[in-house]
Amino acid sequence: MLAENNARFTIGIDMGGTKILTALVNSHGNIVRTTRYSTAVTEGKDRIIEQITQSVHEVSAGLDLGRDIIGIGVSCAGPVDPENGVLVQGTNLGWDNAPLKSIVEDRFKLPVYVENDANAAAIAEYRLGAGAGSKDMVYVTVSTGIGGGLILGGQIYRGANFAAGEIGHIIVEADGPECNCGSRGCVEAVASGPATARRAVERIRRGETSAIIQMVEGELDKVTGEIVYRAAANGDPLAGEVVYQSGRYIGIALASLVNILNPEIIVIGGGVAKAGELLFKPLRENFTIRVMRSQREKVKVVPSKFGSYSSVMGAAFLPYLTG
To answer: Fewer Cβ within 10 Å of end Cβ, the chain: N or C?
Structure first.
């Protein structure tokens, strides 16, 4: 039995625009069980709550929720009011002012804590991951969107209206494509996974050749950022150029961030970040030539320790931090 020897657990839920990842985590910080769903964004709020409910039941099977679970942490993209447990602007979920704390507490009668996904990931990396030992750390996630979590002086910095760390909305191309946030040329709009896929498809539709066409059997609507990165890893020239440009854009954004905040370390995570040096090489090159000379050798840019599990790990830590 999971609960033998009076073991206690927390549950972390990472809600994203493409997936809901739920994990049962023990008191030693180890993931015991996970479940993953494709987020039913087009089916509406009620369906998303059903998915969360089902995922919690699956990871906690065999446990007594009231006895064995300390609490539930929820991480989600966009500005979050952690005091009231409200997702203020859920652009990728199509759900603003979502009272997640009250909804999930009503379902499970357990304490629930809500945090921005990048802040949650920053907490995990700062406490046990690639940023352990630092005082000033920036976490950047690159996947469906681009977000960030700021640890300044050992504390999460949220800003006056809970919107600090929205790194994805640093503008890197003044007349660039429209972003979901309502602005133009944001780094998220040109370098996230979907944006990388879009730029590759635009070039293919203009008549350029690429192995991507064969990878999706000619169905260009199926091109994803992951497919573009795979094609680049296999030596496809078009994909390589598109990936380089994504890394370049992210490097430019991070240079601006460092020039303002002066952190010790930048930790890069998220699904797209698994591309390794395909992304990190152009990112570092463009970061280095744009950051202030005095900081070029002082700020480390490193991959995350927990990878795509950073946010769900951070969510699972929340009941210990705020309970």
So the answer is: N
* Helical ranges in 60-116 per DSSP H: 65-68, 100-108
Judged on CB neighbours under 10 Å (0-12, 13-18, 19+), 28 is: exposed
Q: State how far the alpha carbon of 12 is from the alpha carbons of 34, 65, 112, 121, in Å.
A: 9, 14, 10, 11
The Cα–Cα gap between 82 and 216 comes to 41
**Would you say 229 and 99 are in contact if contact means Cβ atoms under 8 Å apart?**
no
pLDDT in tens, 48-65: 999 999 999 999 999 999
Report the mean per-residue pLDDT for the chain. Answer: 92
CA geometry: angle 83, 87, 90, nearest 5 deg:
160
**How is residue 185 written in tokens?**
């040329």
Which CATH homologous superfamily contains domain 4-122+309-322? ATPase, nucleotide binding domain (3.30.420.40)
Q: Where in the chain is the domain with CATH 3.30.420.40?
A: 4-122+309-322, 131-304
Please tell me the predicted confidence (pLDDT) of residue 91: 74
CATH architecture of 131-304: 2-Layer Sandwich (3.30)
Q: Is 116 helix (H, G, I), strand (E, B) or coil?
A: strand
Distance CA 128, CA 289 (A): 31
